[in-house]
Amino acid sequence: MTTEPTRTHPGGAPAHAPVHEDTVLSVRDLTVTFRVDDGRAPDVPAVRGVSYDLGRGEVLAVVGESGSGKSVSSLAVLGLLPGTATVTGSARLGDLELVGLDRRALSDVRGRRVAMIFQDPSNALDPVFTIGFQLRETLRRHLPGLSRAAARERAVELLRLVELPDPEDRLRFYPHQLSGGQAQRVMIAMALACDPDVLIADEPTTALDVTVQQEVLDVLRRLRDRTSAAIVLITHDMGVVADLADRVVVMRHGEVVETAGVAELFAAPRADYTRALLAAVPRIGAAAREADTDDRERPALNVEHLVVEYRNRRGRAVRAVDDVTLRVQPGEMLALVGESGSGKSTLGRCALGLAPLTSGTVEVVGTRIGRDTPRAVRAARARIGVVFQNPAASLNPRYTVGESVAEPLHVHAGLRGAALRARVAELLDGVELPAAWASRYPHELSGGQRQRVSIARAIALDPELLIADEPTSALDVSVQATVLELFRSIQQRLRFACLFISHDLAVVDELADRVAVMHRGRLVEIGERSRVLGAPQDHYTRRLLAAAPVPDPAAQGERRAARHAS
Question: ∠ CA(89), CA(93), CA(97), 5° rounding?
């Protein structure tokens, strides 16, 4: 049976420091602990003494690594934590104290006065109901006197507010018929349904391409200007912070280590942790380097005139990949970039034999996919490592971390017993996870920690080719920096070829040797990294670079002004 989290005021309501009259949310000494289910271990502190004020029309960014407490503190304000949580302190929404509020009263607050935009709209939206139905249900839940016609009119108005094209038609769409950016705009529209005072946006742009991310950030900024809603922005992307935030709260190990205006924080951070966090942010403009490759060697991946077509519901052929030719040499890292729907992930699946080839050839470690025998293709797959974008879906939830990492070693290398355990410990140490965590399950780890397990599993067999599909999109900047350094050092040692699929151009600049840019299934540009990112020839590549936020508020403001002026 699910129980309510304990929400108390020790010794009565805590004393509040005076707050500005424009403050809409005032948090004081917020503390969250989690009770261990067996009752024998001590409670686990997740948030300790967090305090901040949020002004009307202000964007307050809350940043920090996974496990820092940034999401837990916001969920505690809304009473969305499980029954094992104990919440103390104060969170005042105007004159209303949220900590200690009963379930019914909190239910009235959620969505009407405080709304949340979740990280993954595909999980937050109900797949069996249309967008229009879900918007109307949200409206009628909080505005019971609203007629059906008025609810529909308001739903169209909300979709128009978040700049979704053809809002009347979109009401009939299901979530799977929308792109990631469109689904996130629907989530924002639902959050705005009742004109809330506060929007809590939890990593709202993490999984989005740079151009779509730019559009969503512009929508949030314009909404803030039109409605004067205050926004709590939870993120690990310092470029997004520089682009949108007014003030920043930096958290570590459940505590606030620094609070400052965005310009002050980037220019002169006071806390050592903040300085380390900013130093770890990848920036476009990495130093030149030479790849350890030899064009005389057999390519690990050779794609020639590849065409992949699918049939839509009307029976028409849709080209996901259109006449693409590229190769990846041993020891080389080729980054494949482009927006969602550009065909880059489809190309990666073709290399694994997981997508049909309409025409052209794909040769992986000397084996022709779709032409050589199934036995030869299976043998080739043992020499390919894969890191998928979503580790929660790619790791077996019933396997421990150790079992997930050990599986390819056991199946393909025949390792057992002490040798297998030692190799698993070595791999976990290589991705900076304690060897003792081999007994943990994926749900006990953060998203970044699960991705490190996926990387350890992918390199377990010393692959000749590694295909990495957005492997760092869910990672904090400091963890990302460690993983990128790990990626490069392992590649230099093992000399495997890598097809690195990503939308983060700063990560690509830091890691890749060459860059290939895809747009609507076609390869529009390919070349050495510094040339493609430093002096792009194609208009689409230039548009991608212009859309990528930089971790500098002043520079980002100039870029935004120039973009709107053009």
Answer: 45
* DSSP conformation letters of 75-131: HHHTT-S-TTEEEEEEEEETTEE-TT--HHHHHHHBTTTEEEE-S-HHHHS-TTS-H
- Check: CB of residue 391 under 8 Å from CB of residue 458: no
Rounded to whole angstroms, what are the CA distances from 103 to 2, 151, 269, 314?
A: 13, 26, 40, 48
Using a 10 angstrom Cβ sphere, with 0-12 exposed, 13-18 middle and 19 or more buried, the burial of residue 132 is buried
Please state the φ and ψ torsions of residue 261, each to the nearest 5 degrees.
-60, 155
Q: Give the residue among 444, 357, 345, 440 at the shortest CA–CA distance from 401.
A: 440
138-163: pLDDT as tens digits:
898 888 888 989 999 999 999 988 88
CB 438, CB 428: distance < 8 Å:
yes
The reported pLDDT for the residue numbered 287 is 57
Provide the pLDDT for residue 474: 64
Q: What is the pLDDT of residue 447?
A: 67
In the sheet that 497-501 helps form, which strands lie side by side, from edge to edge? 384-387, 465-469, 497-501, 333-337, 514-519, 522-528
End-to-end CA distance of the chain: 58
Question: Can you tell me the distance from the alpha carbon of 349 to that of 347, in angstroms, rounded to the nearest whole number?
Answer: 5
The per-residue pLDDT for range 397-433, each reduced to its tens digit, is 999 999 999 999 988 888 899 999 999 999 998 777 8
Per-residue pLDDT, 502: 87
Report pLDDT for 499. Answer: 94
Q: What are the CA-CA distances from residue 248 to residues 28, 266, 519 (Å)?
A: 16, 10, 35
Residue stretches of the chain with pLDDT short of 70: 1-21, 37-41, 207, 286-296, 312-313, 447, 474, 566
Residue 377 CA: distances (Å) to CA of 305, 328, 367, 385: 20, 18, 7, 14
Predicted confidence at residue 399, as pLDDT, reads 94
The Cα 264–Cα 270 span in angstroms is 9
Contact 54, 104 (CB under 8 A): no
Return the axis-axis angle of helices 477-494 and 447-458, rounded to nearest 10°: 0
Quote the CA–CA distance of 15 and 307 in Å, as a whole number.
67
Q: How far apart are CA 160 and CA 152, in angstroms?
A: 12
Instruction: List residues bridging with 515 in a β-sheet.
Output: 335, 527
Cα separation, 120 vs 183, in Å, equals 9
- The answer to whether the pTM exceeds 0.90 is no
What residue type is assigned to position 440 of the chain?
R
Q: Which domains does the chain have, with CATH numbers?
A: 23-279 (3.40.50.300), 297-383+498-535 (3.40.50.300)
Residue in this structure with the two tokens 């990128």, named with its chain if needed: 484
